[in-house]
Amino acid sequence: MLNNVLQGLMSRYQERVPDVSAILQAMVTAGIIRQAGDIENDHIAFRTMGVPQLGVQSLEKIFLHYGYAKKDAYRFTEKKLNAWWYAPPSPKYPRIFISELRISDLSQRAQDIITSYTNEVKTDPVDALNLDDTQQVDTFLHSGLWRTPTLADYQALAAESEYAAWVIYNRYYLNHFTISVHNLPEGYNTVAGFNNFLESKGFVLNDAGGKIKTSPDGLLLQSSTVAKMMEATFAGGETHRIAGSYVEFAERKVLPQYAALPPEQVLREHRREGFEAGNADKIFESTYASQTKKSS
Ligand code: OOG
Ligand code: NI
Hints:
about 20% strand, two-stranded antiparallel ribbon, dioxygenase, EC 1.13.11.93, iron
């Protein structure tokens, strides 16, 4: 079941984000991997609006049903976000990172705009799903949830929270998937090395806080592409270029207590787990205008 849902998410994401196929193709051409299926997906991420009938408490039910376990919480004061990560039922599946906007921390005007859309969803929509029916779940994850926003509302939200604007248009579309680099061949198995490869092929990286985001323990390194701008159709047929989704790269170093393990015996459980608020804070900006202006 989980396989079906993940495949549905990945196929829509790959259609929408040209960098995904372009990066996978560049990796095959360079001989880094034999085929796209060789990629280890470190994690996928969703964004949502923190209103009572939606938000993390709603979306997470889908993945808890498929065996994911809720782990640590993260707070982003300035961006007005909360997030949690979820450990998969088996290491062959990606971790999941879900964030939500703390609506009540926004101005009354922004709250009114957001709730004018989210109030169309009267009750928690996940409660109405048969979670064992993956077709139903797939359709739900790619459904509108609320009416198509107006460009004026999108822009008013963007002025206050770029995250809010992203969610009002993109809903539950996958925000990113993440290529694990630590098991790739020598030269590509660090974020630094992989970033060099990406830039040599013309991919544009998010440089908020530096291109490599490093956790204080030095064991989790991350980077990401800048989201490509895509033509979006708003209410009344108005069109405008807005940020879509992006691709992330993660290097999880072996924990100090397993440093003596021979490389071929190193498994996911021997590496740094979880996420890092300081890294995440900057990765969110992959869809923000300060970064996307470099990709459009
Ligand atoms: C998520 C940003 C954080 C990570 O791995 O820390 C993140 C987002 O942009 O929605 O992906
Ligand atoms: Ni991420």
